[in-house]
Design brief:
Blueprint lengths: L38 E8 L10 E5 L10 E5 L5 E7 L2 E10 L5 E10 L4 E6 L1 E2 L1 E7 L14 E6 L11 E3 L6 E7 L2 E8 L10 E3 L2 E2 H4 L1 E3 L4 E6 L1
Parallel strand pairs: 1-7, 9-17
Antiparallel strand pairs: 1-4, 2-3, 2-5, 5-6, 6-8, 9-12, 10-11, 10-13, 13-16, 14-15, 14-17
Length: about 230
């Protein structure tokens, strides 16, 4: 038996909405369980050098779910880099994987996996995250502020099918240069912490676009270089 939704469907995107007013009781919301042949997504996950990723975290998401974090499953890879997700109804799933590479940042992988009525075997290879670099201009501040006293911060702006990403940050050097390494592909809100009271980030130009206004979109296998004012 698989999850079912009002309207007699196993697909949340095809379900029928139920409108409930204040103090109203709605009757005849009947559901009937459906027996469906399920499948398993299983396979191996490897590091960029081809060795088994023994400490990877995996997340399988059903993107048709209308609510974030519903239809999400988590697994850890085994010592041999194996993983599996069983009992899946037919549909299209998003498989995310993540592992730490120490001080160099995070490894990641993401792929779309269609499931019919047969088991699916996949091979996943982790990639290194992107590098977001640039320079911070603190010259408008009087008195002058040492750039090493502030931090450039990237906070993820996640969609329901994104991994639960964490904050990424870096401290500029004495010349104001900074580099944030190992940043997984996603949309990020950029900010600068440690500024004096009354001061805030004015603009953050990456690829001729103000990321402070529109957020920074980090794509796979790229380096985003720019300047922060």
């Amino acid at each position: 038996y698989v999850p079912v939704y009002f309207g007699g469907t196993a697909s949340p995107s095809a379900s029928t909405r139920v409108t409930v007013g204040a103090g109203q009781q709605v009757a005849a919301i009947d559901l009937q369980l459906q027996a469906v042949k399920t499948a398993t997504i299983a396979g191996t996950i490897a590091n960029p050098d081809g060795s088994p990723a023994t400490t990877a975290n995996l997340q399988l998401i059903d993107p048709s779910m209308p609510v974030a974090n519903v239809g999400v499953w988590f697994r850890n890879s085994t010592p041999g880099g194996r993983f599996s997700f069983a009992g899946l109804a037919p549909g299209t799933y998003v498989l995310n994987a993540q592992a730490s590479e120490g001080s160099t940042g995070e490894l990641w992988a993401a792929l779309t996996v269609p499931v019919n009525d047969a088991d699916v075997d996949v091979s996943v290879t982790l990639r290194r995250g992107a590098t977001v670099s640039g320079a911070i201009d603190l010259s408008p501040l009087k008195p002058a502020l040492d750039p090493r006293r502030v931090r450039v911060v990237l906070d993820p702006v996640s969609s329901p099918t994104d991994w639960e990403l964490g904050r990424h940050q870096a401290t500029p050097d004495a010349d104001g240069q900074f580099a944030i390494r190992g940043v997984p592909p996603a949309k990020y809100r950029i900010s600068v912490t440690g500024l004096p009271a009354g001061w805030s980030l004015d603009e953050a130009t990456f690829r001729d676009r103000d990321a402070a206004e529109w957020h920074l979109q980090v794509e796979a296998a790229e380096s985003a270089a720019g300047g922060v004012l």
